[in-house]
Amino acid sequence: MSVLYDRPSYSLAHLLVRKGELQKSVTDIDDLYARDLPGVISAVQAWLELQVDSRLLKAVEGSWKAQHYGNAIRDAFICLEEVLRSAAELDSSKGLTGDKLVTAAFATNGTLGPKIPQDEFMGKLTGGEMKGLEYLLRGGFLLFRNATAHRNIQYSRRGGGRD
After folding, report:
1. Domain spans of the chain, in order of start
2. How far apart are CA 105 and CA 46, in angstroms?
3. What is the pTM of this model?
């Protein structure tokens, strides 16, 4: 099972019991759980692995499995910092992190711009769109990484929010 999808979140049996149809549907429920659901879960896992960078999945896996969701957020941002440093060819010994790292990575004389894929669904990004990407990354660091790094936030698995 994948880190993120390890069990169904809502029981089909529960839905059918509410309608008083459980006895008539027991074989259907068994069939869904035994045959259909594992295939759907596998398909979602395969899709997820294509959509999410394997470095990110590896970075958060331990914290996610241990249900330390705040740590998973922190781990994800550490991974993002490593990817940004590498893509922008920034020396890690400079100690740049968070929004300062984003600023350096997107600097006018930086090397990150040409490395942003230009053949994706949006095509070649304009200067304003590159600035939007910079602000998006900066905002993520300032809001999520900083909050998690500076205080204990009790995130939950469900929706990533607080319980």
Report:
1. 12-51, 54-150
2. 31
3. 0.62
Q: How many CB atoms lie within 10 A of CB 141?
A: 20
- Tokens coding 105: 């990575």
Task: Give the integer Cα–Cα distance in Å for 76 and 83.
Answer: 11
The DSSP-derived string for 61-128 is HHHHHTT-HHHHHHHHHHHHHHHHHHHTT--GGG---HHHHHHHHT-TT-SSGGGS-SSSTT-SPPHH
Contact 73, 155 (CB under 8 A): yes
What is the per-residue pLDDT across 86-131, written as a single tens digit (0 to 9) for each? 888 888 898 899 989 998 888 866 566 656 666 666 777 788 888 8
Alpha-carbon dihedral angle through residues 73, 116, 102, 70, given to the nearest 10 degrees: 0
